[in-house]
Specification:
Blueprint: E1 6-10, H1 17-31, E2 38-42, H2 45-55, E3 60-64, H3 81-86, E4 91-94, H4 97-102, H5 107-119, E5 123-128, H6 132-136, H7 140-151, H8 157-160, E6 164-167, H9 181-199, E7 207-211, H10 219-223, E8 230-233, H11 240-247
Helix pairs in contact: 1-2, 1-11, 5-7, 7-9
The structure holds phosphoenolpyruvate.
Phosphoenolpyruvate binds near residues 12, 173 and 211.
Length: about 260
């Protein structure tokens, strides 16, 4: 079964409202409305509504980078799922490694957020991936298996078909070190087999994005891999030209080694 590729930009803590609007407009103009792929940008909360407004009538979709695990209440400084939806977000990144690392997000919290996002009609992008120490200790598959199994706990097959997974090896995020297409495919294939074991045929519908220093010059080879269904892009999504080139990837086989 073919899965429509999704190219998602994670702007992290960058861009003012005016800069966000400008970037959305430039990106929409550069990419047009390709029918064979989806485009998503995830601005900071402060720019979400303005970016969503600027994206209206274009192919660019807008998502949040996080949300709280409660619907409302006394949680100072937090943003509820309904609020990001109200601002125009259709997607939400959940369990990014920076949230796991700096804000102590556990698999249990990540799972609660994934379930709540689905209940609220948002598409969760569940981030999974090992640190350098874990890879060097030979624990890549154990860690990824735990992130996937725990992150998707208590979901039905129908729910899972609506989830996007992003495999992001932590050692490749913002470091300029990209997993080779073969290294990435090895883990993406592992995730697909795990999804099959847990949810049967629904596994074929789940898009598994790769994230970690995706750039215009490596996106084509990554996207040629059978189980890589798009990208979650940090640094290179902050420049319209670079991200447009990534969105407009042309899957080609990696050069011979
Ligand atoms: C990310 O923020 O999820 C990411 C992959 O960042 P970068 O592309 O900069 O490595």
């Amino acid at each position: 079964m073919s899965r429509k590729p999704l190219m998602a930009g994670n702007w992290k803590m960058h861009k003012t409202i005016a800069e966000s609007v400008d970037l959305v407009k430039k990106l929409a103009a550069l990419t047009g409305a390709p029918a064979d792929r989806e485009i998503l940008v995830c601005p900071p909360f402060t720019a979400l509504a303005a970016a969503a407004q600027a994206a209206k009538g274009t192919a660019v979709q807008v998502g949040a980078q996080n949300m709280n695990d409660n619907l409302q209440g006394a949680f100072t400084g937090e943003v509820a799922p309904g609020m990001v939806k109200d601002a125009g977000a259709t997607h939400v990144v959940i369990g990014h490694s920076e949230r796991r690392q700096f804000y102590g997000e556990t698999d249990a919290l990540v799972n609660k957020k994934v379930r709540l996002a689905l209940e609220q009609g948002l598409t969760p992008i569940l981030c999974v991936g090992e640190t350098l120490a874990e890879r060097e200790a030979g624990k890549t598959f154990t860690v990824v298996e735990r992130h996937v199994t725990e992150g998707l706990k208590a979901l039905s097959a129908a729910d899972v078909a609506r989830v996007v997974i992003a495999y992001e090896p932590v050692w490749a995020i913002g470091t300029g070190k990209t997993a080779t297409p073969d290294q990435a495919q090895e883990v993406h294939g592992f995730i697909r087999r795990k999804l099959e074991a847990l949810f049967g045929n629904a596994a074929e519908k789940v898009r598994v994005l790769y994230g970690g220093s995706v750039k215009p010059d490596n996106v084509d080879a990554l996207m040629a891999q059978p189980d890589i269904d798009g990208g979650l892009v940090g640094g290179a999504s902050l420049k319209a030209d670079d991200f447009a080139r990534i969105v407009l990837f042309q899957a080609v086989a990696a050069p011979a080694k």
